[in-house]
Specification:
- By secondary structure, the chain is an alpha/beta fold.
- Helices cover 38% and strands 17% of the residues.
- The chain contains eleven helices and 15 strands.
- It has helices at 16-26, 46-52, 66-70, 100-118, 153-174, 199-208, 228-241, 259-270, 281-285, 300-306, 314-326, and strands at residues 8-11, 33-37, 59-63, 80-83, 121-125, 138-139, 178-184, 187-188, 213-216, 222-224, 226-227, 247-250, 256-258, 276-279, 296-297.
- The longest helix has 22 residues, at 153-174.
- The radius of gyration is 19 Å and the shape is globular.
- The relative contact order is 0.14.
- The mean pLDDT is 94.
- It binds uridine-5'-diphosphate.
- Uridine-5'-diphosphate (UDP) is lined by residues 90, 186, 197-199, 202, 214-216, 221, 223, 259, 281, 291-292.
């Protein structure tokens, strides 16, 4: 396929990850990119964003839900469909308790039915939450997944995403759908809002206001923070180079840290006088809040099969996020 023949759809294209993905997709200036986003958790100002993206003449959008979009009768065929739209954030998901499975599954089926009949390739952006903890936090695509006996909103989200992954993988056989799944690990960087509850922008916002930095529990939780631009690159590679029916971890194992160390790094890099305190997150967010298991990726498959190499270390990721929030753009 010539590049100029490539029509692209991004659901959730005005979200944190989606907005970086769209910028990378627009780089070549030859592929029309259409965004579907209901702006429910968009961190951007659309007028400002769409005015500054490369090749802005190639970008079009509809502000509506995935469901509303796919109910239309006049949708053009797309060569590439990136599905990112979903509820997000450890705090953001809480208000959708009990409805996450329905929304996630309905949206994914609407998209996969469309791609299966219209042709093209689908990349489903799933979550590393599906692992449920892996082997002491080490998560490989080859491992079994463990589902907790304890019901939580987080579990509803993880199970909904996992159900969609499995349905899509089966459809690559039963319906000849071309689909890949990626599982991002703790995506971080500019445009991530502190409002969703994500840890890095929260710590930075607290540090810049000289407020106490709220480390949950004992702060020994393990995560591997992955720069959003690396994640966007991994998503594009997975769709274009990945094998249909394949699942890829997109996460930077070199950025593995525990949360107390992250808080200390934020203090150091921001030069704040903030004090680190240890708090019970249920006291802040209520009984529905649940801590995730430790998680960091085996990224060998993405590296070997897609040539994906993350370029941003943890310090750079913190510095760039700090600069973004310091500039007042996390409004
Ligand atoms: N966390 C924290 N203080 C905060 C926000 C988050 O200690 O103010 C912790 C949280 O408990 C988790 C880690 O930081 O262990 C990453 O949290 P985030 O919500 O960003 O990602 P997830 O837990 O979904 O991987």
């Amino acid at each position: 396929m010539n590049r100029h023949e490539r029509r692209i759809l991004v659901t959730g294209g005005f979200g944190f990850i989606g907005s970086h993905l769209v910028e990378q997709l627009l780089q070549d200036g030859e592929s029309p990119v259409h965004v579907v986003d209901d702006l429910s958790s968009s961190p951007i100002n659309i007028d400002r964003y769409t005015a500054q993206v490369p090749h802005k003449e190639c970008l079009t959008w509809d502000i509506c839900t995935v469901k509303e979009y796919f109910q239309r009768s006049n949708i053009p065929a797309y060569h590439e469909v990136f599905h990112l739209a979903n509820v997000v954030g450890p705090v953001g998901v809480l208000k959708h308790a009990g409805d996450i499975v329905r929304r996630t599954v309905e949206d994914t089926y609407a998209i996969s039915d469309f791609v299966a009949s219209a042709g093209g390739r689908l990349c489903d952006v799933s979550t590393s939450e599906v692992y449920g903890g892996g082997r002491d936090g080490y998560c490989s695509e080859k491992d079994s997944m463990i589902i907790s006996p304890k019901t939580s909103v987080r579990l509803e989200y993880a199970v909904a995403k996992l159900a969609c992954e499995i349905a899509l993988m089966n459809q690559t056989i039963s319906k000849n759908l071309h689909a890949v799944v990626i599982r991002p690990f703790n995506v971080a960087g500019p445009r991530q809002s502190s409002r969703g509850g994500f840890v890095l922008p929260r710590f930075i916002a607290q540090a810049l206001k000289e407020e106490e930095i709220t480390v949950y529990g004992d702060g020994q939780m393990v995560r591997a923070f992955t720069h959003v631009k690396d994640v966007a690159d991994g998503i594009i590679r997975a769709l274009r180079q990945g094998g249909s029916g394949q699942v890829y971890n997109i996460g930077n194992p070199a950025n593995k840290t525990n949360i107390l160390h992250l808080a200390q790094a934020v203090c150091r890099l921001s030069g704040t006088g903030s004090k680190i305190i240890f708090v019970d997150p249920k006291k802040l967010w209520g009984p529905l809040f649940e801590e995730a298991n430790d998680k960091y990726p085996d990224a060998d498959r993405a590296s070997n099969e897609l040539g994906w190499q993350p370029r941003y270390d943890l310090e750079t990721t913190i510095r760039e996020t700090l600069q973004y929030i310091r500039d007042g753009r996390d409004a």
